[in-house]
Amino acid sequence: MPGIRGYHKTEWGVTMHRYIQIYLLPTPDKDKSSNIQKVKLGEEQLVEVTGITTGESGKDAVVEYTTAYRDLTPFSVLVATNYKQIASRKANFSLDDEGWKLEKELHFK
Q1: Can you give the residue ranges of every domain in the chain?
Q2: pLDDT score for 12
Q3: CA–CA gap between residue 81 and residue 106 (Å, rounded)
């Protein structure tokens, strides 16, 4: 693994040293049978909310915001991503009796 210290390649795969354990993410059962291990690359953090647009009903909203990567791990070099770029994002929310909830799809009423 280029740029990564603390691993040892064996004839059956890769064994990671103790200090790398802090970067390992939980492995879903479906990935365990394929010996897939997900690792933390860094943290994508909220920079700024840049806009909120409410639907006509007042029960739907689109929130526009920006994010940036912080606290990159040694594994970040393995993914071709521009970690210095500020990303623009959108999130959809709907209001129900329990409050605002994050939605997967946009539903203006």
Answers
A1: 1-39, 41-103
A2: 47
A3: 27
